[in-house]
Amino acid sequence: MGGTTRRTITGIAIGAAVIAAILLVPPRAIAPVVVCLIALAALEFTLLLRRKSPRPPVIAAALLWLVGVAVIACGLWSLAATGIRHGNIMLLYIVAIVKFSDVGGFAVGTATSRLMKGGNHKMCPSLSPGKSWEGLLGSFVFSCIVSCAFIPATHFAVSKALAFGLVAAFLGTAGDLVESKFKRWVGVKDSSALKITNGMGGVLDMLDSLTIAPAVLLLLI
Question: Dihedral (C-alpha) 121, 185, 39, 37: value to the nearest 10 degrees?
Fold first, then answer.
């Protein structure tokens, strides 16, 4: 089984499991689940930081660890706060518009890279070779479509739904790029330090787009 096929199958399976979990989990269980995700992400961040060679000074490494874990915790805890304050559907909405921006970016970026003569226009090849401006456009489009599809549940005006879609795609991409910068800095291609996924990278690779966007979206709600 090829890498792309394995990633696709794993992504579909994980996506279906996440949707079912978000819809079925009782509100009182949201916080413990998110705390477990924060712990896993923080552990993987710590393991990756230890791979940096040469090792940074202790004080610098400690500050970086504090900032990194704080960003992870803030983003993921905002998901818990969204579910607790606004219900499971709104939690699913936030996760959906952020993660579908990932899907749109990957799909459109991959397609345009193959179809355009000379390839598509790279956003920052030294940081994330796969990221392109065409992919970013795909992220905006997919996120906005999903955001509008949730209007019967969110009761947002179309303009607000589109605004949420744009913000989710932009901040999701920003979170992805920040994690890419960290991975390049420690010298790894993906964050799979815990080896618990099937071709999908590590925990941070799966949660990177949710490290910044949820906190801002919660404030906007």
Answer: 10
Residues in CB range of 88: below 8 A, 6 or more apart: 22, 23, 25, 27, 30
The string of DSSP letters for 110-138 reads HHHHHHSTT---BS-TTT-TT-BHHHHHH
Cβ 198 vs Cβ 58: under 8 Å:
no
pLDDT in tens, 68-92: 999 999 999 999 999 999 999 999 9
Q: Which of 153, 178, 167 is nearest to 219 (CA)?
A: 167
pTM of structure:
0.87
Q: Name the β-bridge partners of 122.
A: 132
Burial of 188 per CB tally in 10 Å (0-12, 13-18, 19+): middle
pLDDT in tens, 100-115: 998 888 888 888 888 8
Kindly list the domain boundaries of the chain, sorted by start residue: 3-220
